[in-house]
Write a structure and sequence with these properties.
By secondary structure, this protein is mostly helical. Helices cover 61% and strands 5% of the residues. It has helices at residues 2-5, 24-33, 45-50, 63-79, 85-103, 113-128, 138-155, 157-164, 166-169, 176-199, 209-219, 229-232; strands spanning 8-13, 16-21. It has a two-stranded antiparallel sheet. The longest helix has 24 residues, at 176-199. The two termini are 42 Å apart. One of its GO terms (molecular function) is iron ion binding. It is found in: Endoplasmic reticulum membrane; Microsome membrane. It comes from Nothobranchius korthausae. Its cofactor is heme.
């Protein structure tokens, strides 16, 4: 197409308009020289349906809100061990639990994918929630299953069709609706953890990312920098 229309051309997909850049010089101009002008994320129909406020979440926000959220997230996660030796202790402890689960199979063939998924998720949970979940925890496993299914659905043809034709797909039956019901389960799981943190929150002694976010949320309650429960969950 670039040979016909040049290094900059437009393509329409459903309701969306895409500007295509071709060639190293053109891409460097847009993504390096004028990076600030092209840093924002495109509209996401799936996120727009799920989140109750526009541009919510660390991964969907733009501009000053995104910069503040990103800076806060990186700083807080580093304080709780990200990129430091203290995180290695959590990883080693999780490996011990993983090894115990593998040994229970007594040398029989099995798929380790679920165990590895649980182990990696537990490392994240220790940073965000200050705790790990047992591999047999029903709610934890349901949440992981829903997350895997939702990511798979969002990346396949049904997710792409919803992104291209959201108003039409909203009214049609299909696997894409399972994606939203899965995200609802995940949101409920996270919301319950947030409520537990609220009950025994000590502003002078934050235990994890959720505690720190709740404390910052109180400080920034009159700002529009995205410190809300919607963004946290």
């Amino acid at each position: 197409l670039a040979e016909i229309y040049g290094n900059i051309f437009t393509v329409r997909l459903g309701k969306d308009t895409f500007v295509i850049l071709c060639g190293h010089k053109m891409m460097k101009e847009a993504l390096v020289t004028q990076a600030e002008n092209f840093v924002d994320r495109p509209y996401n129909a799936i996120a727009d349906r799920f989140y109750t406020e526009p541009g919510a979440g660390l991964f969907m926000s733009n501009g000053d809100k995104w910069k503040k959220q990103r800076r806060f997230a990186l700083s807080t996660l580093r304080n709780f061990g990200l990129g430091k030796s203290m995180l290695e202790q959590s990883i080693c402890e999780e490996i011990r639990h993983l090894q115990e689960e593998i040994e229970r199979e007594k040398g029989k063939p099995f798929s380790p994918a679920g165990l590895f998924n649980s182990a990696v998720s537990n490392i994240v949970c220790q940073l965000v929630m200050g705790k790990r979940f047992d591999y047999s925890d029903h709610n934890f496993q349901i949440m992981l299953k829903c997350l895997s299914e939702a990511i798979l659905l969002e990346g396949n043809i049904w997710g792409q069709l919803y992104q291209a034709f959201p108003k039409l797909m909203y009214h049609l039956p299909g696997p894409h609706n399972k994606m939203f019901s899965n995200y609802t389960v995940i949101h409920k799981f996270l919301a319950e953890e947030i409520e537990k943190h609220k009950k025994d929150l000590d502003p002078s002694n934050p235990r994890d990312y959720i505690d720190t976010f709740l404390i910052e949320m109180e400080k920034q309650k009159d700002s529009d920098l995205g410190f809300t429960e919607t963004n946290l969950a």
